[in-house]
Amino acid sequence: MSRITRANRFALLCGASILSLSAIATPSLAMAQETTAPAQTDQDEAAEVGEIVVTGLRASLASAQSIKKNSEQFVDSITAVDIGRLPDVNVAEALQRVSGIQITRNYGEGSGIAIRGLTNVRSELNGRDIFSASGGRGLSWEEVGSDLLGGVDVYKNPSAEMIEGGLGGTINLKTRMPFDAPGRLFSVSTAYTHYDLANDDGYNASFLASDRWQTSAGEFGALLNMSSGETSFRQDIDVVEPYLVRTDVPGYIGQEIAVPNGGGINVGFGGRKRFSAAAALQWRPNDRTEFYLQALRTEYTFNDNGLSFFAYGGNGVPLELAPGAAFTVEDGVATSGSFINPGVDLVTFATTRDTQTTDISIGGKWRPTDRLEITADLQYIDSKVEQQTMNLTASVLNDVSGPRDAEGNPLFPGNYVVNFDTRPKIPEFSATNGYFEDIDNYGLTAVLPYAEKNDAESWAGRADMRWDFEEGGFFRDFRAGVRVTDRTAINRSTTYGTWTAIGSTCANWSNESGCYRLADFPEYAEQFPYNNSFLNGEGQGAFGNVWMFGLNQVGNPQQVFDFLNAAPFNQNIGFRSFDDPAAQVSNISETTYAAYGVMRFGSNIMGKDWDGNLGLRIVKTESASDGFETITYRDPNSAGATPTTLTIVTPIVGTNKYTDILPSLNLRMFLTSELQLRFAASQNVARPDFSQLNASYSISPTYAAGGDLTPAPGVPGTGTAVGNPLLDPQRVTALDFAVEWYFSPVGFVYATAFKKDIKDLFFNVTDIETYDLPGLGQVPFNITRLKNVDEGTLEGFEIGGQRFFDFLPSPFDGLGLQANYTFIDSNAATVAANAQTGGAEISVPIEGLSENSYNLVLLYEKYGFNARLAYNWRDDFLKTTQGVGTGQLPIFGKAFGVLDGSISYDFNERLAVTVDAQNILNTESQTYQITENRYRDYQLDDRRFSIRVRLRY
């Protein structure tokens, strides 16, 4: 896309927003002293109903209930009436209390969110875009501290006036504004957290200062909210490799027995650093006009260090069974046995990922008459992500897998047997003869330096209007607006093709001079430091006191480079330049144009009031992706026994454009003042992530013999596509029906039935594509790339409610309960599995979806105490079909529940102390391969215990 075109679009975008703001500002200054009150809006009415004179926990629940009750569309809310009192210290963990929401965790913290089983969820900040330059379209829920938020709204069936995007729905994070408080406000909080598995501590500190004041030019408000913190984590995983069906199992010769092809352990540890700052200015020249400026800055650093130790058979090659070993078999699956001399690698790794995001918005609203309101908003987002990863691999060698000296003697004279037993709760592995505890049995194998550098920028401008009709008529108001966005992203990756052997490794094809032992560099080696504490001691002794590259060295890439680039290695290793032709650089741009109209209406039928809205949103999307076509093949004009290999890299551009028409309908009937029915229908789209639009691909012909100059006849070559710039968005049609009974300001029950039909789902498809190769003509290739080929359906229901038991005698009248249950049934595309299914395609549910899930939250508020004990449970779910080391084999997560709790005491209206505990029951996470008797992972994360002190003036 040319600079001139982008400049013109930017000018039009800014010009439209500035003209809209000018239209607001000019009459406002002329009417500086007018005090005519504007007509009341739905949001004003909801806020008015929400002003219930209660405090603490009840206030937050009453506010959230008021939003749900008075909204014309399906919305669930979490609010923090008091600053710093969002129910959980992590946004995702707070949202898991909402019916229909399921979360995934990253190193113990809530990170991924699914609404009704769909992980494609739009994230917003104050009703606008928010994202980081990670190749996706949303925000990592770990990046924003919850103490910056005044509340979170979850829209499961968005209306046409909301920004499009998200198959599951939209989650809107709301920061505070100075006019939210009646006057001056100052709050400061600090927190200390202990992480039990990591045996480490973290902290968090935040403050908020806000004020508003009257001047001759109108009322002004200013707010600054800042938060800074550090966390720690540790994650221990016991892993069973994919099963292979064999007929040579001792004691079961001739029978088809599924045998795990190895296993291992993994320990990851590290920490997170967060800094967030939100600032806001408001100016209200008169009762008809308001201007604002909002800014958000987030800085997030993620440090992930660790090590893994695996005995395995590479690329599905069956391991050699130990002669004479005893095997146990249950239902055709080997549950214990032994292997002789499996390949064993120890990988020490370290990753640092830095994310910086700046979000600035300016806008205003103006009511030139009692019936007309005009709003305008201009937003700018800039985000940068940098990552560096270092992997160092050492391998255990023996007299077969290791090299030999000049006399033919093995450099690693020895053998070992690895035993496995999956019958206990935690699968067990062990090695014989203490072979793994001898540093002389290890050779240096490889180094893998990897880096990313991504930049993303977005401009968005919108203008909206609302016309209020006369009271008493069928039509309530009409809303319309336009929105234009212009977004670019540059994603740079060194690729993982930077794997480099250390010397010539110590494999059996190597030689003595190219093999370096770990024992020769003791300052770069250490024994497994978590042998006694692995899985809280329950996995103690797995594989024994194994050796590995030192953790201190791998965390310092330059030290690793200096080590390997000096004698005796004398290699040339470093991070690959992003300008290197072998690196991947993708420039992606996207422009959208949207317009919508929504009519709100209401009437009375047979003595029953009802209302609703009907809307239509039209969105045009234009995208372009720059990339590279890489062709690697043998020069057909080569001379000699060894052909010359040619690599041709050609810049390419992929473009796409599409228009979507998205209707929405919301209806509500009031059976009584407490009982109401709802219905909603809408269509929405979810555009591909920017990383999925990458146009780059590489192809290489298949040759029958090593010296052939022409490809094998009738045999397609191979190809790999990074993404697909021709992807259309995934599309969803959603239906909801609900009955809600609000029997008190802090009490209600509800039941909701829903259905979502999804089409144009993304799936990796392998097809024959033909390309012209210089000197060879048309050559076919098997290329796997994302395409819009699949569809799916999910349907289910939610039931839930909350109440306080005020009728009980004191002190039990402070007790309360929240509860909800969600059932979801789904079908999606089939997925090609590996040898465990004989290569057959099997049907799987939508990834990340649990059919059943529920929340039970016990509440208490009285005598200054606010307490909450929350249990969240979900049943089995598909975790992935693209796991590391498992190909397209479906990996399922087992059902589990997590118990969290908190208790706070308000000494007075200014000072409060809170104690929190997450994962109180120390719940493990387990996965399996297709069926439950084929284990995959047993994973344990930290329990977190924290204390928070909050002071407010």
Q: Main traits of this protein?
A:
953 residues; disordered N terminus
Describe what this molecule looks like in 3D.
- It contains six helices and 46 strands.
- With 953 residues, the protein is mainly beta.
- The chain has a 29-stranded mixed β-sheet that branches. A five-stranded mixed β-sheet has the order 1-6-7-4-5.
- Strand 38 (852-862) and strand 39 form a beta hairpin.
- Helix 2 runs antiparallel to helix 3.
- The two termini are 53 Å apart.
In short:
With 953 residues, this protein is mainly beta. It is built from 6 helices and 46 strands.
Helix-strand blueprint:
Blueprint (H helix, E strand, L loop, with lengths): L2 H28 L11 H9 L5 H15 L4 E5 L11 H5 L5 E6 L2 E7 L5 E5 L2 E2 L19 E7 L13 E7 L9 E11 L4 E16 L2 E23 L2 E4 L10 E4 L1 E25 L2 E24 L15 E3 L2 E8 L2 E24 L5 E25 L20 E5 L6 E4 L10 E27 L6 E19 L6 E2 L23 E3 L19 E3 L1 H4 L2 H9 L18 E22 L2 E27 L10 E26 L4 E12 L10 E4 L16 E5 L8 E15 L2 E27 L3 E28 L10 E13 L2 E3 L8 E3 L8 E11 L2 E10 L2 E4 L10 E3 L2 E11 L4 E8 L6 E5 L5 E7 L2 E9 L1
Parallel strand pairs: 4-7, 27-30, 31-34
Antiparallel strand pairs: 1-6, 2-3, 4-5, 6-7, 8-9, 8-46, 9-10, 10-13, 10-45, 11-12, 13-14, 14-17, 15-16, 16-19, 17-18, 18-21, 19-20, 21-22, 21-23, 22-26, 24-25, 26-27, 27-28, 28-29, 29-32, 30-31, 32-33, 33-34, 34-35, 35-38, 36-37, 38-39, 39-42, 40-41, 41-44, 42-43, 43-46, 44-45
Helix pairs in contact: 2-3
Distance between the amino and carboxyl termini: 53 Å
Count every helix, treating DSSP H or I runs of 4 or more residues as helices.
6
Question: Proportion of β residues?
Answer: over 45%
Integer-rounded radius of gyration: 31 Å
Biggest sheet layout:
29 strands, mixed
Please bin the fraction of helical residues: under 10%
> Strand tally, please?
46
Please tell me what the overall shape is.
globular
Q: Summarize model confidence as the mean pLDDT.
A: 88
* Parts with pLDDT < 50 across at least 5 consecutive residues: 1-55
